[in-house]
């Protein structure tokens, strides 16, 4: 992903999801990939792009998987790490869009993790 080989990174991240769909790790990696794809495409308006839908879907999948881990009492530290990271990244997305209240709410949610 950091070498801007987005398609290759996506294939690897989807393999992580396929191998362990209950883990938030693969979904979070896909969230980060959506962020990087958008960040490297300077001509795209974040709010009106397909990147936003993709990003939001993956970040929500991350939080959902982390919440499921917490309910099952599986590795709470890992679950809170991914949940807090997902909420924080979502807050950053909102801040880029200048949606300050939504960014604030996500920041509070991240801090509670």
Please tell me about this protein's structure.
- The chain has 113 residues and is mainly α.
- It contains 5 helices and no strands.
- It has helices at residues 6-19, 24-39, 50-71, 76-96, 100-111.
- Helix 2 (24-39) runs antiparallel to helix 3 (50-71).
Jot down its keywords.
single chain, 113 residues, 5 helices, mainly alpha
Short overview:
This protein is mostly helical and about 110 residues long. The protein contains 5 helices and no strands.
SSE order in H/E notation?
A: HHHHH
Biggest β-sheet: count, sense, barrel?
A: none
* Percentage of residues in helical conformation: over 70%
Please report the distance between the alpha carbons of the first and last residues. 26 Å
β-strand percent reads: under 5%
Structural class by helix and strand composition? mainly alpha
Count of beta strands? 0
Tally of helical segments? 5
List the helices and strands and how they pair.
Layout: H1 6-19, H2 24-39, H3 50-71, H4 76-96, H5 100-111
């Amino acid at each position: 992903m950091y070498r801007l080989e987005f398609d290759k990174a996506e294939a690897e991240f989807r393999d992580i999801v396929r191998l362990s769909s209950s883990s938030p790790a693969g979904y979070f990696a896909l969230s980060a990939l959506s962020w990087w794809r958008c960040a490297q495409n300077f001509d795209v308006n974040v709010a009106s792009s397909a990147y936003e839908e993709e990003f939001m879907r993956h970040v929500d999948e991350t939080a959902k998987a982390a919440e499921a881990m917490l309910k099952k009492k599986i590795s709470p530290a890992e679950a809170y790490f991914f949940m807090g990271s997902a909420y924080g990244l979502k807050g950053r997305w909102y801040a880029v869009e200048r949606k300050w209240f939504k960014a604030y709410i996500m920041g509070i949610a991240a801090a509670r993790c």
